[in-house]
Specification:
By secondary structure, the protein is of the alpha/beta class. The chain is 44% helix and 21% strand. It has a domain at 2-30 and 87-188: P-loop containing nucleotide triphosphate hydrolases (Rossmann fold, 3-Layer(aba) Sandwich), CATH 3.40.50. The protein has 6 helices and 9 strands; from the N terminus they run βαβββαβββαβααβα. A hairpin with a 2-residue loop joins β5 (65-71) and β6 (74-79). It is globular and about 55 Å long.
Length: 190
């Protein structure tokens, strides 16, 4: 199953995905490509595939990306090969634009939107990261408000107020969706 986790910058997508994979070794994280520079502590091939624009556009030309978008001044994309693994739960940590493209291309994909407990908490998380300039933070907060309006496009909305609770809730959602998919397969094959 393809599982998309989206939400505004600073909502904790990376932490949630990391905890899901730590608790569920059968989950596979799809590693996106990006033209942005690594943040402190990020590693190429683990967090993202950090590539230049020429390489990014080459991937587009070859149809090697399932989706791609221009976000916060950088290009991001999901390699198609990451999504074609059979009998594997693949988690994508992507933005709203990318989620819509994935759902259009893979209608059975499960879309989960992470909401911050409040805009004040989101602002504090973003400024607390210390990875963006004030101008970038303002741009991300403005975009966050736009992305939050898009949450109704998602199958599930989860407020990220407590990491253990959120991870448990997402695990239950995935389990429920697996059962529904199995029931649908059984019903359609009869």
């Amino acid at each position: 199953m393809i599982i998309v986790i989206s939400g505004p910058s600073g909502v904790g997508k990376g932490t949630v995905v990391q905890k899901l994979i730590e608790k569920n070794p059968h989950f596979v994280r799809s590693i996106s490509c990006t033209t942005r520079k690594p943040r402190e502590g990020e590693k190429n091939g683990r967090d993202y595939h950090f590539i230049n624009e020429d390489k990014f556009f080459e991937l587009i030309q070859k149809n090697d990306l399932a989706e791609f978008a221009f976000v916060h001044g950088y290009h991001y994309g999901t390699p198609l090969k990451n999504l074609t693994k059979e009998k594997t739960d693949v988690i994508l940590q992507i933005d709203v634009q990318g989620a819509k493209k994935i759902k259009n291309r893979f209608p059975e994909a499960l879309l989960i939107f992470l909401l911050p407990p409040s805009m004040e908490i989101l602002t504090n998380r973003l400024t607390g990261r210390g990875t963006e300039t004030e101008e970038e933070q303002e741009r991300r907060l403005k975009r966050a408000k736009e992305e939050i309006k898009e949450r109704t496009f998602y199958d599930y909305i989860v407020v990220n107020d407590d990491i253990k609770r959120v991870v448990s809730k997402i695990e239950k959602i995935i389990e429920k969706e697996h059962k529904l998919h199995q029931q649908n397969k059984t019903t359609s094959s009869q």
